[in-house]
Amino acid sequence: MQTTRIEITQHGGVEQMALVTAQLPELGAGEVLLKHLAIGVNFIDTYHRSGLYPLTMPSGLGLEACGVIEAVGHGIHDLKIGDRVAYAGGAVGAYATHRIVAADKLVLVPEAIPDAVAAGTLLRGMTAQYLLKRTFPVQAGQTILFHAAAGGVGQIACQWAQALGVTVIGTVGSKEKAVQASAYCDHVIDYHDADWVAQVRELTEGQGVSVVYDGVGEATFAGSLDCLAVRGLLASFGNASGAVSSFNLGLLAQKGSLFVTRPTLAHYTRNRAELVETAQDYFAALAKSWITPQIGQTYALADVQQAHLDLAARRTTGSTILLP
């Protein structure tokens, strides 16, 4: 069985991504053959491509997709040919027309959820789930700060937090994104404003927020600490503006006995039970209409270079999809 996939042979810019035809290995026990229907593009894909998160070469790219099972290996009893499934995380290689995937990484997709929503939001939805429910379990009446509120994770997490009774302050990087985020944030701030930290303090009557969810990284890290209430938590879960290299640990004491964590989805879905529970909680929130995901833009698999360029330049909103 052959597949058409995006492959890189060395780390670097978007020019390293090439569309190639490759032979798939034999289907093993516990594995299924998927025909992809839609593929999600995430910021972590750019980290894998650039080498921020190094890969063994040659390598595919992509962590998220929705597809139909075309063949099933030995030892699989809960999935069958024809099932529509999705995955998010695990080994890279989602940028492909067909792929062999370990069955224990797959979750069944409810009939009401479109291919693009399953492919383009499962990673983001499960990220929002662990951030809001486990990294810092938000409670009704709390005020939180969520950076990049118009982004893929931000739009889902902010809607979900509001449904849980939380007051949401969202930051964005442009007037256009401010308009979008105002639909699901109680307050919207442009983090390019020199006084954005002061604005957060003013909105919280000087107290600060219980938690800051920061996927931006270097550009907002220091300011995020200054937005926290005493014993508040900064969940730094991404590096869209660059990695946070180091900081003085003593600042946490000076600024109010603060907490900082660098969580990842992989550590919150370490086994199949955690994976299924996380995905089902997200699907349930979708079913309750707590969240209306935005599929912002769609590209052909062959146009993946442009997709990465647009993502890096912050020209995207919501989720980005590749169609095989």
Describe, in short, the structure shown:
The chain has 324 residues and is an alpha/beta fold.
Assigned CATH class of the largest domain: Alpha Beta
Radius of gyration: 20 Å
| N to C succession of SSEs | EEEHEEEEEHEHEHEHEHEHEHHEHE
Unreliable stretches (pLDDT < 50, length at least 5) are none
Q: What is the strand content?
A: 25-35%
| CATH architecture type of the largest domain | Alpha-Beta Complex
**What is the number of domains?**
2
Question: Can you give a write-up of this model?
Answer:
With 324 residues, the chain is of the alpha/beta class. It folds into 2 domains: 2-122 and 266-323, Quinone Oxidoreductase, Chain A, domain 1; 140-262, Rossmann fold (3-Layer(aba) Sandwich). It is built from 10 helices and 16 strands. Helix 2 packs across helix 3 and helix 2 (115-135) crosses helix 9 (272-287). The longest helix has 21 residues, at 115-135.
Chain-wise SSE layout:
Blueprint: E1 2-8, E2 18-23, E3 31-41, H1 43-50, E4 59-60, E5 64-72, E6 84-88, E7 98-102, E8 107-108, H2 115-135, E9 143-146, H3 152-163, E10 167-172, H4 175-181, E11 187-190, H5 196-203, E12 209-214, H6 218-226, E13 228-236, H7 250-254, E14 259-261, H8 265-268, H9 272-287, E15 295-300, H10 304-312, E16 319-323
Parallel strand pairs: 9-10, 9-12, 10-11, 12-13, 13-14, 15-16
Antiparallel strand pairs: 1-2, 1-4, 3-5, 3-7, 3-16, 5-6, 6-8
Helix pairs in contact: 2-3, 2-9
